[in-house]
Amino acid sequence: MKALVIGGGIGGLSAAVALENAGIDCEVYEAVKEIKPVGAAISIWPNGVKCMHHLGMGEIIETFGGPLRSMAYQDHLRGEVLTQFSLAPLISRTGGRPCPVSRAELQREMLDFWGRDRVQFGKRVTHTEENSDGVTVWFTDGTSAHGDFLIAADGSHSVLRPYVLGYTPERRYAGYVNWNGLVQIDEAIAPAEQWTTFVGEGKRVSLMPVSDGRFYFFFDVPLPAGLPEDRTTLRADLSRYFSGWAAPVQTLIAALNPETTNRIEIHDIEPFDRLVRGKVALLGDAGHSTTPDIGQGGCAAMEDAVVLGAVFREHRDIESALREYEIQRCDRVRDLVLKARKRCDVTHGKDMALTQAWYQELKEETGERIINGMCETIQGGPLG
């Protein structure tokens, strides 16, 4: 049995490893000639960490995941701590530590684990067809590939998604712009082993430790889509949007490198009622494009892969296996997309009264409520 995996990112490589572990031959096709990760880093929460271990790639996460031991929210103007607490209860309850990791490192190590020479690059899909013999895809270079089934892990702009759904869904602008990058850790900005977030005005500035003594940072600002901003105006834009914010925020703006800082308009897509058509299945961002507000996008793709491998160990009939995959994943990924959207709206001032109420709640927060919410999300995955 042979699977075609379209997409050589986190989701596609996780799926390929999972399927190979289940005894299925895989061919991986990637549209670009060289993968350049979108975004500086990614949060891998304990559900994702468990998935990586389950797939045999746990060493990657343990080696390159940053030391995240506590969490704090701080006032945007004075930098005063609103709440600060240890993440030890989260680690104890979920059986794993959160691991923020550089996307470039994660992508590189996963490619090396799978085998870089086993990925066919420059293979951009135009269309697919299936029949009783399996699935065929055609690429823009005029070539084609045939397999028994196909996993579409081709990202939030998936070419194959309309084939599965029967329509082309619209991406929904979430209402804010995110700037993200990496800087050297400076304790004048934030403690080295803490997830620190400055909040106010429906905006946030957040820092997480990754490997090699670096912070992953991001800025969020509610803005209209399509503003003429780019790297040439980046520092001035951030200085304007965060004028008057606390000294650590100003230090961060001065320290970042505009040439390696990304500016992204954040979108999601309404959850889908299906993930499978015949012998073609959506996986990762192709199947559930979410905002990053609960840090579960990459984790959800890894969960998809774990479930995919499990169903093919149980069912050798392709369509039965893929139906079971869809049953196990549809509600879970819908829940994650909608949870992220709800958190997005509160964080970014869609209803400023609710956002202000959240700021007040943070002053009374012991960490218990936040950790309970995280545990509920994390423990809803296929590995508990």
Automatic annotation (TrEMBL):
It comes from Pantoea coffeiphila. Belongs to the FAD-dependent urate hydroxylase family. This is FAD-dependent urate hydroxylase. It is an enzyme of class 1 (oxidoreductase). It catalyses: urate + NADH + O2 + H(+) = 5-hydroxyisourate + NAD(+) + H2O. It comes from the Bacteria. InterPro entries: FAD-bd, FAD-dep_Monooxygenase_BioMet, FAD/NAD-bd_sf, HpxO. One of its GO terms (molecular function) is FAD-dependent urate hydroxylase activity. Its EC number is 1.14.13.113. Pfam families: FAD_binding_3. Pathway: Purine metabolism; urate degradation. Residues 2-337 form the FAD-binding domain. NCBIfam families: urate_HpxO (NF033623). One of its GO terms (biological process) is purine nucleobase metabolic process. Keywords: FAD, Flavoprotein, Monooxygenase, NAD, Oxidoreductase, Purine metabolism. Its cofactor is FAD.
